[in-house]
Amino acid sequence: MNTLLLALRNLNRYKTRTLVTVLAVLVSVLISIIVDGFLRGVFNLSTYNLLAYESSEVTIYGDGYFDKRDEYPSENLIEESEKKAIFNSLDNRGYLYVPRYKTGATLLFYNESEEIEIELNTILIGLDVEKDSTVYSLSKFVTDGTWLTNGKEGIVLGSKVAEKLDVKIGDTLTVELNGRDGFKEVLDQEIVGVVNTENPAVNSSLVFMSLDVLNDYLYLDGAISEIDVSDGSSLVAKRSFTNEINSILPLGAKAYYYEDVNSDLMAIMTGDMGGCYFVLIFLFVIAATGISNTMIMALMERQKETAMMITLGFSHKDISFDFVLEVLLSGLIGAVIGLLIGLMILIPLSKSGIDISSLVSSDMDYGYRVPLLIRPGVYFESFIIIPLLALFFSVLSAYLPLRHFRKKEISTLFRGI
Question: How far is it, in rounded angstroms, from Cα 231 to Cα 213?
């Protein structure tokens, strides 16, 4: 208790040093809380939008398809007999799934008023309309026209695809795409709907058709590119879910986790987070250096006081503990204030978001599956870990200079050398 009271008195006596320590910890904690909120918020939203509109938690491919998936190889499809066997296995486990055929497609539209032909490269997905809504949320984001119907012709465009082509509902597009074994097929399809999701990659590059219709045009004989699977939970399935599915698949087919299917995107997001957290650690080191310097100054100023305490019977351990306690208390004040300010900033921003459209073009593919209105998250575990890290660096930066002064003789301390 006496040591605590002494430390509190010293905080009041040496106001400048206390203020420097408080500000160093406050700024470090505040910046870290805000950056962590935005980083994790963007990462989690990007993952959610990826799984809600583009890629399921687990994807099943035919033999040899995964390694060439970016090329949409039509020679490595899941055939009809294999597809039925997989469906039966998934139905027995109660998993949600949707079959899809995916291929590159070129859309052509002749604008009669301006007498120009517009061409756009996209990705066309043929899907089972009824099953798709059990895994994806695409049908909820039709902003113009209607969603697809099984067995009926028509095409649904991402909102940016429609904007680039300058088309509207009822216009007819010419679709050039690859069929079975790589042969080219040309279709004329009427635009029946436009989707505008929170995933910019879907809006800017995807078009959708009924799998039944696509099967007839491309002579697929029931073959598909992939089967997208979900466990039906609101939480992201763990990687072990992939192993469960692989245990029930027939020979040749294999299930892959979404992190593996979208490895390039995950590498970008993980790398960005790692780089930013490295900067935050560097920020803590800078703050700790400032605290260490103020501690050295304090020790220089209080050498005679320290010598007097030793002659009164205080041990080096007691004196060191007193100095460290002062830094700990001032750091605790800074951490608490930083947390409160961080909360006051993050909570409103998590609701309103920050519009970055003035910084990033809506046509730019910047990797993340988030709209141009980004929202940070409020993660309470960060409100524990970050202050503890700040206090750890503060105490460590205070303790290291003390080791040098503990070796000095009392006579040397009295002379202030």
Answer: 28
